[in-house]
Amino acid sequence: xxxxxxxxxxxxxxxxxxxxxxxxxxxxxxxxxxxxxxxxxxxxxxxxxxxxxxxxxxxxxxxxxxxxxxxxxxxxxxxxxxxxxxxxxxxxxxxxxxxxxxxxxxxxxxxxxxxxxxxxxxxxxxxxxxxxxxxxxxx
Length: 139
Known about the structure:
By secondary structure, the chain is of the alpha+beta class. It has a domain of about 70 residues: Alpha-Beta Plaits. Helices cover about 25% and strands about 20% of the residues. The protein has a four-stranded antiparallel beta sheet, covered by helices on one side. The longest helix has 13 residues. The chain is elongated and about 105 Å long.
């Protein structure tokens, strides 16, 4: 009977931790945006309102309070507030838009507009199929 010679195998030692660490690079904090925001325009029929999105961690109440302190009372009217996306909409005059565009706590400003879709050809097809499938009900 043949017995193979015993072989020993040693696993290589695991690589050292230093092999996987990356040198620390100093991170630069971005400079505050000194340029005023540009309002994102809507192509089509506009509603006359704007959506104002705030940066993360910014208090919506504080921004709205500061807005009303900075402009005339009739220059801004808040329409809706969305806490989940930290945004609000409203009708804003030129002074209000200038204030919001220059506010460092605002992330974006968009014009609101109407969106419409053409009639679906699928609906027309299903109606035609129904009338063809039941000709006796088509009086």
